[in-house]
Write a structure and sequence with these properties.
It is a single chain. The chain is mostly helical. The chain is 79% helix and 0% strand. α2 packs parallel to α6, α10 runs antiparallel to α16 and α11 packs antiparallel against α12. It is globular. The N and C termini lie far apart (57 Å).
Length: 509
């Protein structure tokens, strides 16, 4: 039985093993997002100043570590292509897999550091956030970079992304399982649950990376043997100068001339903003637009759907990408977002069922679009390789540079959202009614009753006008993005010729 199981594991397709890595990230990350703030605020009793200091430092580190780790990982690939200086694809993939095999288990260990009090709450909060995000960034960068390194064709990349979405949906089930053991007064069972999740993640990362490494070590050995056999037939070019290493300033200058990269990050900045706006204000919209018209179970169902549906929906979007191309699917989703928002605006806030559908679908489609954009980044990796004639695609570095430009959208979302809400309604979500002890109950009720219609209207306008504005800005920038159709086919053909068509020059006999 054990031998049969091992044989099944060794015969799994590469796309399935690659996609399974998403499972071992999502089972931990979804639980982290849901509980880490509540744990430190309600269980460890962190003070407000320490909390905001930790979040501020985390914000800065979260923005900088993507390009930093990408640069440390891929700077060797930035040199101009030279004969005899080639790095083979199996070697690059093995480098990524070694990084995943080390950082994956460390990511799981850093996840466990949140759920046991081992230092002053403020210090633990800061150290845990930075440590967790560092290992998560390393895992995400190399996992996303493999999407560009394992395949070149759009069909193969959508297949890899398909399994990532499938396993991410399965990983989201850990959120529902966590409800059964979450208890602020008795933390023991929740800690046991987190340890079990972390052990599953460690075993999964170790096994998956080992299986992939064995496959590509065999490919690399075959390539090495072939090159050793033909080594004496190479024409020695003693006059070839040493390869020129690219500095960070030169790389940034190259990116500034990469027109499609610039238009993409403009569009993606708006997309990241909209994704986090939906996440931040989803409970507020439920409370002020639907709380008195739907049951608690319906609200919980909408919240649960918003976690799992984007992954499942993405499976359908990826099948559309195979037929129509990623560019057309993303553009269609922008038009759909604009159309649904306009329809909701015209219908008004009193259409309860339409409002439920719109709040859920707005988040589902927005999150689904975010998950398709990794495919666009892999195409930009191909174009960067061709435009700058690199000896190897610097995929992790490009993913890191995209994150550097777009991650500020995570901060802009709550800031702009709360400012708009306060400017329109006078409602401040951070205010705790400091005068509640000195005013009577009756005036307080009258004030709340007077504020509620305005607050409800303000939430509704925020709900519909933000996606309308985002959709218009994204359609404008996406219309300038030219890496699709004929140009994309040309870039992929050139990348394949650069990476596969470098036959060694053979001496004439």
């Amino acid at each position: 039985m054990g031998l049969r199981l091992l044989a099944c594991l060794f015969n799994l397709p590469t796309a399935v093993i690659y996609g399974s890595l998403s499972l071992f990230v999502s089972i931990l990350h979804n639980v982290f997002l849901l509980y880490y703030v509540d744990t430190f605020v309600s269980v460890y009793k962190i003070d407000k100043l320490s909390f905001w200091i930790g979040e501020t430092v985390f914000l800065i580190w979260n923005s900088l570590n993507d390009p930093l780790f990408g640069w440390l990982s891929d700077r060797v690939f930035l040199s101009t292509q030279q004969p005899g200086a080639e790095i083979s694809s199996p070697e690059v993939v093995l480098k990524r897999l070694r990084a995943l095999s080390h950082n994956g288990p460390l990511f799981a260990v850093s996840f466990l550091a949140f759920w046991v009090a081992w230092a002053h709450p403020g210090l633990q909060f800061l150290l845990c956030l930075c440590m967790y995000d560092s290992f998560l960034t390393m895992v995400d960068l190399h996992h996303n970079a493999l999407l560009a390194d394992l395949a070149v064709s759009a069909k193969d990349r959508t297949s890899l992304n398909f399994y990532c979405s499938l396993f991410s949906a399965i990983g989201s089930l850990s959120v529902f399982m966590s409800y059964a053991v979450w208890n602020k007064e008795n933390f023991f069972y929740f800690r046991i649950f987190c340890v079990m999740l972390a052990l599953c993640s460690i075993v999964g990362f170790t096994l998956s990376t080992q299986l992939l490494r064995q496959r590509f070590e065999a490919d690399g050995k075959a390539k090495w043997d072939q090159e050793s056999t033909l080594k004496e037939l190479y024409i020695e070019k003693l006059s070839v100068p040493q390869e020129k290493r690219i500095t960070l300033a030169e790389y940034l200058q190259q990116l500034s001339r990469h027109r499609n990269f610039l238009w993409f990050v403009c569009m993606n900045l708006v997309q990241v903003f909209h994704c986090h706006f939906n996440s931040n204000f989803f409970p507020l919209f439920l409370e002020h637009l639907l709380s008195d018209q739907i049951s608690v179970s319906t609200g919980s169902f909408l919240l649960g759907v918003s976690y799992i549906a984007p992954h499942l929906n993405n499976l359908y979007f990826l099948s559309l990408c195979r037929r129509c191309g990623v560019y057309a699917v993303v553009r269609g989703l922008f038009f759909l977002k604009l159309a649904l928002s306009v329809v909701m605006l015209l219908a008004g806030p009193d259409q309860v069922y339409l409002l439920c559908i719109f709040i859920a679908s707005n988040r589902v489609f927005t999150e689904g679009t975010c998950k398709l954009l990794n495919l666009v980044v892999t195409d930009l990796v191909d174009e960067d390789l061709v435009l700058n004639r690199r000896k190897q695609a610097a995929s992790a570095l490009l993913f890191g540079m995209v994150a550097l430009v777009t991650k500020p959208g995570q901060t802009f979302a709550p800031l702009i959202g709360t400012w708009l809400l306060c400017a329109y309604t006078g409602y401040d979500i951070f205010q705790r009614n400091p005068l509640s002890n000195v005013v009577s109950a009756q005036p307080k009720l009258e004030s709340a009753a007077a504020l509620e219609p305005t607050l409800r209207q303000g939430c509704f306008y925020l709900l519909v006008f933000v996606p309308i504005t985002c959709a218009l800005l994204q359609l404008l920038s996406w219309s300038q993005f030219s890496l699709h159709g004929k140009r994309l086919r040309m870039v992929k053909a050139q990348r394949q010729s650069l990476t596969q068509g470098r036959a060694p020059e053979v001496k004439m006999i």
